[in-house]
Amino acid sequence: MDLRFTEEEIAFRDEVRSFFRKALPEAIRAKMVDGHHLSKDDIVAWQRILNEKGWAVPHWPVEYGGTGWGPMQQYIFQEEMQRTPAPMPLPFGVSMVGPVIYTFGSDAQKQRFLPRIANIDDWWCQGFSEPGAGSDLASLRTSARRDGDHYVVNGQKTWTTLAQYADWIFCLVRTDPHAEKRQQGISFLLIDMETPGITVRPIQTFDGGREVNEVFFDDVRVPAENLVGEENRGWDYAKFLLGNERVGIARVGVSKQRLQRIRELAGQVTQDDRPLIESPKFREKLASVEIELKALEMTQLRVVAADARRGNTGRPDPASSILKIKGSQIQQATTELLMDVVGPFALPYEEEPDEGSNEPPIGPDWAGPAAPTYFNWRKISIYGGSNEIQKNIIAKAILGL
Amino acid sequence: MDLRFTEEEIAFRDEVRSFFRKALPEAIRAKMVDGHHLSKDDIVAWQRILNEKGWAVPHWPVEYGGTGWGPMQQYIFQEEMQRTPAPMPLPFGVSMVGPVIYTFGSDAQKQRFLPRIANIDDWWCQGFSEPGAGSDLASLRTSARRDGDHYVVNGQKTWTTLAQYADWIFCLVRTDPHAEKRQQGISFLLIDMETPGITVRPIQTFDGGREVNEVFFDDVRVPAENLVGEENRGWDYAKFLLGNERVGIARVGVSKQRLQRIRELAGQVTQDDRPLIESPKFREKLASVEIELKALEMTQLRVVAADARRGNTGRPDPASSILKIKGSQIQQATTELLMDVVGPFALPYEEEPDEGSNEPPIGPDWAGPAAPTYFNWRKISIYGGSNEIQKNIIAKAILGL
Amino acid sequence: MDFDLSDEQRLLKDSVERLLADRYDFESRNGWLGGEPGWSRDMWARYAELGLLALPFASEYGGIDGGAVETMIVMEAFGRALVLEPYFPTVVLAGGLLRHAGSKDQKADLIPQIAEGGLLLAFAQAESQSRYDLFDVATTARKDGDGWIVDGHKTVVLHGDSADRLIVSARTGGGRRDRDGIGLFLVDAGAEGVSRRGYATQDGHRAADILFENVRVGPEAVVGNPEDGLPVIERAVDEAIAALCAEAVGNLAVIHEETVEYLKVRKQFGVPIGSFQALQHAAVDMYVDLEQARSMAMFATMMAGDPDAAARRQAVAAAKVQIGRSAKSVGQSGIQLHGGVGMTMEFKVGHYFKRATMIDATFGNVDHHLDVVAGGDSLVAA
Amino acid sequence: MDFDLSDEQRLLKDSVERLLADRYDFESRNGWLGGEPGWSRDMWARYAELGLLALPFASEYGGIDGGAVETMIVMEAFGRALVLEPYFPTVVLAGGLLRHAGSKDQKADLIPQIAEGGLLLAFAQAESQSRYDLFDVATTARKDGDGWIVDGHKTVVLHGDSADRLIVSARTGGGRRDRDGIGLFLVDAGAEGVSRRGYATQDGHRAADILFENVRVGPEAVVGNPEDGLPVIERAVDEAIAALCAEAVGNLAVIHEETVEYLKVRKQFGVPIGSFQALQHAAVDMYVDLEQARSMAMFATMMAGDPDAAARRQAVAAAKVQIGRSAKSVGQSGIQLHGGVGMTMEFKVGHYFKRATMIDATFGNVDHHLDVVAGGDSLVAA
């Protein structure tokens, strides 16, 4: 047992860190630091820089562009990206549909889609959730009826992140409405967003953001070749997809970077005529979150090491539910700390400035995103299986209750 | 709406306060202040002082010795007693079996028992809980078989507080094992603890205390005249009894007195070479508990006022569950604060000193009970319906879930 | 002790609630929010009609002699309806300064205008460096003949963009953080040298940053003692905080009700999600925190007029701590129990959460007020 | 980075656990607890046999060259069995002082005796005024010829009642709270002028108050630099805290397991109470807090030997905060989920809760260590 990084791991970390520092455009980094929204161009630009370096899809098999790194290297890579802070590649292509395609897809699908995912030539979005389904995913109702060499899709998806930019959507659709169990009769379809009959309607979140959407399908004709794997086996692919989310789910690097930034900012505002960072109470609150984060980092490393030990089986360690629960709590705690820092400057609401806007912000320039982020990040304990669902999973899978 | 005490209420409070200060023997007060155990004699002595004053059973009907006070006066009376701090009369006689007897008992029972309860000539204990029943009280199994003009009781009760001193026990017993619903077929019996066949076995609690007991009944013959009310109606009387617990359940006065004491003690220990009470962190923790307590006090007054408004119907306000939950949390929080104050002097374990022992304590003389109280008071969120049960009640009765 | 409303108070409560129930549906509110001036002048006129704008003022100036309880009633109802109009800055906050420090002439001049809905006020107090310290004032007012010249920059002035007149705290002497030497000055929003930049706040209200450059006011503009205005400011702000606490209770009550209702109607796995015990208990925790907040709002209301300034501060600060903590726990749970839809603009819960959160950030957040309570005497001593 | 145990470590773990599983059942423990000296001399001999008493010492003195990980393994196992023997004071704490500051002669003399089970040590450090400050020392050691005379009163000396020799911190110069001028002295427990009052602690361990009156020791009694002993004390105590963290993890793991098991077997309303979602979620919260504690105990173990004293302090303090918080949450929930029976001596959970709680009160509680962490640099900076 040696809980220090090895020399190789340190060398790898330094390599990754220095690349990220050099390669990330400063304008993007600045937005990341204070939690401003990224443009579509920002996201694409960074993904292509990674792809150029050969690091777009490190966790994929080498034959499809992966790096062959082990779990610890992948962990370090993600951690460093989060700490830079650089934008994390959108999961919908590289972490979700990509692995489904290279695992279950046809050769034609692999050739057609995988390189374009790595280079974000196609922007993918996810069509799983439906209104009324929520945590009960298997109750989905969007239908795909076979009609010759097409499927005809009707229904509605919701919570579709960044669908407004998407070229493609991967969907769970019901191909056999008469299946005995609800989980049967579901298929996994790839759908071109340009296909007639698709309507995207934004859902505005209460923080003022426009990240998520409803996607409506009205007699949308999808070529049968866009079916992944076998018909009515989609539930298995979905479980595979959802099980892949593991390393990095705790977003330890994100929280580290945020705490560091909060420390800086608390040095810039004064309370009782001295920097807030000198307030013992504030320091204690900060220390308490840092202790939780350090513990989570160690917990995460234990999970990563266990992965490495038994080989990356693709099965999630049930302990990864801890990472989700605690990781979300800590991320949310950082938004609360930032609210404490900005104090009265939480109030002004400013639309995300257009590029090139020159109206000065109200209050310090980093204060604007504090409240919207506090509001928006409430989602972290809801999406991807709410914390209540995570607790159900742990109770059953780990505690045997 | 006027949330201040009226002049009459203030006068009443002052009268009660000054009586308590004068009448309570200093030796008892000193034990109360630092949470040492009271002897049987202490408890009896105080009850008789109250009875002499006519304040032993203020909530009873005037004809049986009550004072005729309204809910607000009763609240003030309890609050002042807790703040003195004087021992609260043991509930088993005056708050539990007493009201059952004067409401459902025979005239003979009333005459025989009520005056002796008020003067604690009889020490009562409660025989409701059974091993294996817990929160599911109605699953009780202790049986009472009619045999001529006696009942023959067999079975076991548990968690019987201070049964080691008791002259009488009131029990729920199953008189009809074939009743359709479990709640039917239960009767309410008064049993002389001297009756042959009764064995009391102490349960030691993990803090080292000996408050509770198991009570075994082996062919115990109880005169039929000791049945309260009708046979097989005992569940109704039990519900009545349990519903009576309302005013004072939050023990706001107890927590106030403890916080005041903690404030004093924190002035006597030093940390970083100055009194702990000057530590901003400690003051904040104290302030946080005080804020919760002030809120609870107001909540309690709202419940009391609502009682007063609609007349004291004997039905508990479902909001009184809030008082139980929050009251227990705050009482427990005071034990945690005291642990912070005693610091390393939490460790020494000292048996409660015999009267007249002259061995000096380890550490400051008030430090000894800190840890045992911290441990022992975990019971507050368990007994009388655990906080989980209280939440179930609120969810159902108030929220309609 | 008496927790019952008087007949007049009951009448007030009923009429405010009826007005809002009739007129302040969510769609109307959204409409006003998106338009100019960001709230409803029509509703403002109705508040005037109902006497709400005259409520806390003395009858000799056309007021209704309402006290802290009456303000609590109105603010809680406004909190339940998420009212956007500038009642708080005009009637409660600036109104409080006027009531406590205004001259007879000032009252006789201004209160009738406020009462009839023709005059909006704002209190230009906060500055970029002052955070929550009322005594931290860099804006200056220097004597100029018989008048004064005001210079400085005020920030996040609540509803400062639509106010007709501003009450400005300015330093007439002493150092930036001295308790002495602060005065209050009535300044026309359109006066020469006043420039405003208005903006929305997170909760759909409005605020403004206001620059005062060489703004000349006459001697009649002084409100109260120009060398010792802080006690009046503190008193008015404490009353205002009590009012905000009541508004937050209105917010939180709706969050709780909406959430419990959602738990009843929303089904998952074939049953209402309110049948899941973990969610039931979370709803109960919300209820407990709501009721504790309500109790403390009442306590603040009771103590807001206490003649002992230290006891008043202590009580109001304690209430603000409780309100801030309950806003966090009730609001966060409200969103969480709604799940995804709780994150959307369409559902009410997020809007109420935003308002309650911004109330925490107004006139001192939890940390600020916990410092106050911790620094003072015991809150629960006899 | 490698979280796996080496083969030797695995063997150590297995053999300790097997010994305790075979011998340290709850009834035996209760027997020892109630007798004299309050723990088992037989078990002590077995620990010696197994090499546990030699574990952290250098092989040149008959030790086994074990490091912080080995100590963690033993202490966690001891925490799981709620071991009563004075391993912590003798081997970990006083042993650490010896290892870091003892002279060759002292080591050669004492370590073999410790290793074979013939010598018990205790560290007489705390005083009634010192609370958790290691540098707060009023006990004095003044030069007397070539020896020293020790005077003072030490309190809550862990297992000080059965120790054969005491290592005493005493002031050789400077003021009571100076960091300089503290020395360590080996004192025979039976020396003239030493009087002891032993007593039980809440968790069934033993401690003593010890009075030193004009106790004369020779020059060979000095451990390390008599004018600058504090760094050694801090180092040994940090290592000892890491060991206590591991023990507490053992405690909490058992509380969690016992509670989950109880939820499975205990029935109410006709079903196992573990089927109630609210109790399931509470058990999950316990699990999360346990695993976070385990992670921090590992972190402390890793950092306990760090040459950078500030980083070591920061890490160990952070771990102690997490352990203390987890002890509170896991312990309290463990009792609560057991209900009434959790309050009894018969059920294990209370005993484990007591030990974990006392670990929090030993060498600095949550508040103390949170101050340390808050006063230092970021714990999570790169």
The average pLDDT score of chain A comes to 92
Identify the biggest protein-protein contact and residues per side: A-C, 46 and 48 residues
Rg of chain C is: 21 Å
Assembly type of the shown chains?
heterotetramer
CATH superfamily of the largest domain in chain A: Butyryl-CoA Dehydrogenase, subunit A, domain 3
Number of helices of chain C: 11
- The CATH first-level class of the largest domain in chain A comes to Mainly Alpha
Based on CA inertia axes, which overall geometry of chain C fits?
globular
CATH fold topology of the largest domain in chain C: Butyryl-CoA Dehydrogenase, subunit A, domain 3
Radius of gyration of chain A: 22 Å
Task: Characterise the protein shown here.
The complex is a heterotetramer, with two copies of chain A (401 residues) and two copies of chain C (382 residues). By secondary structure, chain A is α+β, with helices and mostly antiparallel strands. Chain A folds into three domains: 7-89, Butyryl-Coa Dehydrogenase, subunit A, domain 1 (Orthogonal Bundle), CATH 1.10.540.10; 124-232, Butyryl-CoA Dehydrogenase, subunit A, domain 2, CATH 2.40.110.10; 250-398, Butyryl-CoA Dehydrogenase, subunit A, domain 3 (Up-down Bundle), CATH 1.20.140. In chain A, 44% of the residues lie in helices and 13% in strands. Chain A has a four-stranded antiparallel beta sheet, with no helix packed on it. A three-stranded mixed beta sheet of chain A has the order 1-4-5. In chain A, β6 and β7 (212-223) form a beta hairpin. In chain A, α4 runs parallel beside α8 and α10 runs antiparallel to α12. Chain C has 382 residues and is of the alpha+beta class. Chain C has three domains: 7-118, Acyl-CoA dehydrogenase/oxidase, N-terminal domain (Butyryl-Coa Dehydrogenase, subunit A, domain 1), CATH 1.10.540; 122-227, Butyryl-CoA Dehydrogenase, subunit A, domain 2 (Beta Barrel), CATH 2.40.110; 231-373, Butyryl-CoA Dehydrogenase, subunit A, domain 3, CATH 1.20.140.10. In chain C, 51% of the residues lie in helices and 16% in strands. Chain C has eleven helices and ten strands. In chain C, the strands form three sheets. In chain C, strands 1-4-5-8 form a four-stranded mixed beta sheet, covered by helices on one side. A four-stranded antiparallel beta sheet of chain C has the order 2-3-7-6, with no helix packed on it. In chain C, strands 9-10 form a two-stranded antiparallel sheet. In chain C, β9 (267-268) and β10 (271-272) form a beta hairpin. The two termini of chain C are 16 Å apart. In chain C, 62% of the residues are buried. The model of chain C has no long low-confidence stretch (mean pLDDT 97). Classes of the chains: A alpha+beta (401), C alpha+beta (382). At the A-C interface, β8, α10, α11 and α12 of A face β6, α9, α10 and α11 of C.
